[in-house]
Amino acid sequence: MTTPLTADTIRRAPKALLHDHLDGGLRPATVLEIAGQIGYDELPATDHATLATWFRTRSHSGSLERYLEPFSHTVAVMQTPEALHRVAFECVEDLAADSVVYAEVRFAPELHIDGGLSFDDVVDAVLAGFADGEKAAAAAGQRITVRCLVTAMRHAALSREIAELAIRFRDKGVVGFDIAGAEAGYPPTRHLDAFEYMRNNNARFTIHAGEAFGLPSIQEAIGFCGADRLGHGVRIVDDIAVDPDGRVRLGRLAAILRDKRIPFEMCPSSNVQTGAVASIAEHPFDLLARTRFRVTVNTDNRLMSDTTMSKEMLLLAETFGYGWSDLERFTINAMKSAFIPFDERLAIIDEVIKPRYAVLIG
């Protein structure tokens, strides 16, 4: 008998997460506590409920640039090894409580060196937090695997150094590289040397593209830079036409992305907040899912969007009428697209995701 699809049952379903920013997922109480410890007095609120509301409402801005402004506060409290370890540890705790069984969490080391830490110091602290979080989750009966992506800010000139950092830590928990930040005026081709370095070292990378900018950013990310995945990619809808009879026609770029099974790291709530799409109902997720693009469900920034993987899945299910088999497909899509070795991906799919969904589907 099929389990009813509700907020609680979705929370218990296994999930795989590919696009989650560490500095966008802090607990409001943690922001307040660390700010008090380090003497940071620029927070816009002094209690966690009001602060949570401020982050959510300020982030719902209609523009990627304005959406990114509140990160100045979270980054400000992530400048010591202790703070980085705590935030990473709590990230794992929160994801495990939401039944996430695999996650790739990303962050930009260059944003966390104001207190004198080196890039290596920053990554060491975060990876230690992830590892300790995994152990604590396992002890609580919630097994989760968390790996790291190191991100370079696209407006800066440190991407090659961050790519080298990714390779130095590739056997310690860093599984890939990313660029992020405001897209307009900062095309991914500014960082070709970093992407070439990753390819020369047989390493994986994703690129934020097609979120705040259109098809050219997607074309550059795939055609020129060779991205393995696309962060967001919602503007691919501009290369897709739907006829009055419902027939879907793909342009050349859309067709090659589908044919090559390029994964889309889609973040529905965040995409509405940044103005990438007007509403969840108008989000291209369903069009892409129906035409068999490799779409995945992600949180982007859990604090800013006041979201979890369960909330994102429920939102999509309620909007587009998805059932358990659809949610399972999106989860397997994500796990297939993870940057860990194939045998590890397959083990999580066959030993964790499929058996637990089989119980839900009935």
TrEMBL record:
Taxonomic superkingdom: Bacteria
Broad enzyme group: hydrolase
Binding site for substrate: 21, 23, 181
GO cellular component, one term: cytosol
Gene3D superfamilies: Metal-dependent hydrolases
Alphabetical UniProt keywords: Hydrolase, Metal-binding, Nucleotide metabolism, Zinc
Protein name, entry field: Adenosine deaminase
Organism: Mycobacterium talmoniae
Organism classification: Bacteria, Bacillati, Actinomycetota, Actinomycetes, Mycobacteriales
